[in-house]
Specification:
This protein has 11 helices and 14 strands. By secondary structure, the chain is α/β, with parallel strands linked by helices. The strands form 3 sheets. A 6-stranded mixed sheet has the order 3-2-1-4-7-6, sandwiched between helices. A hairpin with a 4-residue loop joins β10 and β11. The two termini are 17 Å apart.
């Protein structure tokens, strides 16, 4: 079974995974994403080279032991190593595999590269237009077979709500800036002193209160209530954090509830997955399935390899 290096290149961070015999056995994290390439790619390439050779050295491997470096995510954007147009929906693993692009970057490594394209909604109207890079690989790594009448939710900086058909093709998706909203509101507003994102202790009662208050009074008014809770009512860190999360998740949860899908599969990290699962369980009648972190954390790497191997088998 072939060995691969899978690069999940995001906007602010990059993860370089080593897969041996179909299993991720090592990961190097780079605190740098394609955003740095606005002024040229030399620094980013140097960091990738360092990561590739670190992972090879740490596992007693040479470049010749690796079949491909498989790249997905924002690394295929206009700021990435190779700019590739999005694929239009509907799109399944076969279409993704056929559209992979080969390349070489000898300044990084002699190992051949292959790039997985992102996806876009096939719409001429602004209201339904959307795009993704990286989540398509993540989705393919979460589930071997995609189901119809199921909504796949990938929480994160830019959460994706993805619908598939009976043939396992992605037919629609939408994006919610949930993660960035949480980061911006907790770090760059008056709420900075009221919220500690490192406090992941969840008070489900206050989570529900925040959700319902925002639903009834609007997000803007609800966010200031977080400070009110702390200053006037002496709310604990857990209570304030949970109330805040209920507000921040209102838009995404509301759109999930609106979906006709009977089943919701939640990927992403526990910090978003857990409060989302609770709110959906409380305020909807949908079947909720949470993918464990040990699977979702590595899904992009496994999905990218699945897409590449599908391209070589057809």
């Amino acid at each position: 079974m072939a060995n691969y290096i899978a690069i999940d290149g995001g906007t602010t961070n990059t993860r370089v995974h080593l897969l041996k015999s179909g299993v991720v056995i090592d990961t190097v994290k780079i605190d740098m994403g394609v955003r740095i390439n606005a002024n040229g790619t030399d620094t980013y390439k140097a960091e990738l080279k360092k990561a590739v050779f670190t992972i090879l050295s740490d596992n007693s491997l040479s470049e010749k032991d690796i079949e491909r470096v498989i790249c997905s995510g924002m690394i295929t954007s206009d700021l990435g190593l190779m700019t590739l147009p999005h694929l239009a929906l509907p799109c399944g693993i076969e279409e993704m595999a056929k559209a992979t692009e080969n390349a070489s970057f000898p300044e990084i490594t002699s190992i051949p590269f292959v790039f997985v394209r992102g996806l876009k909604t096939d719409s001429t109207g602004f209201e339904n237009a959307d795009m993704m890079r990286g989540e398509e690989a993540e989705l393919m790594g979460l589930c071997e077979k995609l189901e119809e009448s199921c909504l796949y939710v990938l929480p994160g900086s830019h959460s994706k709500l993805i619908e598939t058909d009976k043939d396992g093709k992605i037919v629609s998706f939408s994006t919610e800036m949930t993660g960035e909203l949480i980061e911006a509101m907790s770090s760059h507003t008056i709420l900075k002193g009221s919220i500690d994102l490192k406090n992941s202790s969840l008070d489900t009662s206050f989570l529900e209160k925040g959700f319902l208050y925002a639903k009834g009074n609007g997000v803007n008014a609800a966010f200031f209530k977080v400070r009110t809770l702390k200053v006037l009512f002496g709310a604990t860190d857990s209570e304030a954090y949970s109330f805040f999360m209920g507000i921040a998740l209102l838009g995404e949860i509301s759109n999930i509830i609106k979906s006709s899908a009977k089943k919701v599969v939640l990927g992403g990290k526990e910090v978003l997955k857990r409060p989302m699962a609770h709110l959906l369980g409380k305020f909807s009648d949908k079947e909720i399935i949470c993918i464990p972190d040990e699977i979702s954390n590595l899904a992009s790497a496994y999905g990218a390899v699945r897409i590449y191997e599908n391209s070589t088998s057809n």
